[in-house]
Amino acid sequence: MSLSTAFNIAQSSLFNNGRQTSILSRNIQEVGNTDYSRRLAVLASTLPGAQVVTIQRNTNEQIFRQNLSSLSSWAGQSALSDGLEQLETLVNGVNNAGSAATAIGKLQEALQAYSAAPSNGTLAANAVDAARQVVNALNTGTSAIQSVRTDADSQIGNAVTDLNNLLSQFKQANDTVIAGGRSGKDVSDALDQRDALLKKIAEYVPVNTLTRSDGDMVLTTKDGVTLFETVPRTVSFSPTASFGATTTGNPVYVDGVPVALASGGNTDASGKIAGLLQLRDGVATTMQGQLDEVARGLVSAFAETGTGVANAAGLFTWAGGPQVPADGTLVTGLAGSIRLNAAFDPSSGGNATLLRDGGANGAAYVKNTTGAAGYNTLLLSYGSRLDEPMTFDAAAGLTASRSVSDYSTASIGWFSALRQDASTALQNKEALSARLTEALSNATGVNVDTEMSLLLELENTYQATSRIIKAVDDMMATLFAAVS
Questions:
Q1: pTM
Q2: What dihedral angle (degrees, nearest 10) is formed by the CA atoms of 117, 122, 128, 134?
Q3: Do 330 and 292 touch, CB atoms closer than 8 A?
Q4: What are the φ/ψ torsions at residue 204 (nearest 5 degrees)?
Q5: How far apart are CA 38 and CA 153, in angstroms?
Q6: If you write DSSP's letter for every residue of 322-371 in order, what string do you get?
Q7: Which of 27, 44, 58, 87 lies 20 to 30 angstroms, CA to CA, from 400?
Q8: Euclidean distance between CA atoms 476 and 474, whole angstroms
Q9: CB of 269 closer than 8 Å to CB of 77
Q10: Are 337 and 323 in contact (CB under 8 A)?
């Protein structure tokens, strides 16, 4: 080997050592960055010496795809679970203290007390006040549900805006990858950025990826709707300023295709947007329907009856009063419009003893025709009606035949079971996402011990190269001295 060849080898080694050291230093600097993939300089032998051929980036496509899927599932479940917790507090209160079922139970107790002493005016007023609390529970529950729907709609609007911004950023990173790949530049940073954006996008909608030969990536949802191909596809949504019971929320469109409505406590919603849509248009509307059916049942149970006249709203009335709602048919928003009939309300100039005697809608509806102070037949009938089966609309999500009292309790049971399923699923999906994130980090991330070990090897290589250079220098000096 000539001295010039030895010198060239040493020079190449120093250059490669510097490149490798720089890469290892960058790796160490990015320890703990979950959006950074470890780099490795790949060397190839040449004449003379060796040179850096490519910068290799650690990847694991299978784990990465699983991680994206788990992020979507967790985000969808989290959005739903958060909304359920909010509904629980606002609608039913702590330990269901503010629920319609609890208020109905207290009304039943007040009716029993009044029927045992029908001449007691205080007990009559107590029964009417208990009815007022039932109305308040239904009215407040409706307002709370629509408030949650309004908030969910606002969050959907923000999520759509964020998603469109992320897709725009993805285009920039994707264009950098394509351009760098065509020119032979290292695009590791752009690939890291693109993967980081994919993780964020997956939190809003489920993402499937397809990588083309030039590094270009195509994104679709799990249903095959295109999110990105060369340019971002439009994700559109028209927010609604406020919600009432009859308000229908607008859908979210991805490239013109509406996002499907998910279902279940262990929801099949993938991504925050789908979870919020399920909360707004699924859970909340079903819960509203059940409150409406409870309210309809109460109006019917306390309706005044008479010979030759139509049933008329009694203790409880509503926007369509004095008519009584049709049996077995959901009237959307009735829980928000139900009111205590002023004819029974002493604070509004009414007479609480009409609850005992009847006649709020005229003489044809009077039951205590003799005015007996001990008359309690009508009071007992009201208590019985609350426990008698009636037909409810199956569209509200519960079985069609049961009593008003049982129906209100079953509504709480339905919601509690849904919330428990959602809570358990959230824990499981969060744990899965954490495990896959850790697995991805182990497969593609930086291990300090490994990097430090490699740095030590590079230091030894540098020292060996330095000795070669010194030896060549000494030999050249000896040669020049001999020639001169």
A1: 0.88
A2: -90
A3: yes
A4: -100, -40
A5: 40
A6: TSPPPTT---TTHHHH-EE-GGG-GGGT--TTHHHHB-TT-GGGBS-TT-
A7: 87
A8: 5
A9: yes
A10: no
Give the amino acid at 37. S
Q: Summarize the chain as % helix, strand, coil (round to 5).
A: 60, 10, 30
Handedness of CA 193, 196, 198, 203 (dihedral sign): negative
The C-alpha atoms of residue 158 and residue 168 are separated, in whole angstroms, by 16
Q: How far apart are the first and last CA of the chain?
A: 23
Please name the residue that has the structure tokens 């005015």. 371
Per-residue tokens: 215 = 């590094």
For the chain, counts of helices (H) and of strands (E): 12, 15
Q: What is the pLDDT of residues 225-252, one digit of tens each?
A: 999 999 999 999 999 999 999 999 999 9
Question: d(Cα 269, Cα 80) in Å, to the nearest integer?
Answer: 9
Sign of CA pseudo-dihedral 93, 94, 98, 100: positive
* Strand 226-229 versus strand 217-220 pairing type: antiparallel
Q: What letter represents residue 326's amino acid?
A: A
Give the relative orientation of helices 404-444 and 377-387 as an angle to the nearest 10 degrees: 30
Of 176, 110, 140, 141, the residue nearest 379 (C-alpha): 110
Q: Is the peptide bond before 251 cis (omega within 30 degrees of 0)?
A: no
Residues 124-148: tens digit of each pLDDT = 999 999 999 999 999 999 999 999 9
Paired tokens of 41: 């300089």
Computed on alpha carbons and rounded to an integer, the radius of gyration of the chain in Å comes to: 37
> Hey, what amino acid is at 113?
A
Domain spans of the chain, in order of start: 3-58+447-483, 65-205+238-432
The three-state secondary structure class of 293 is helix
Eight-class DSSP state of 252: P
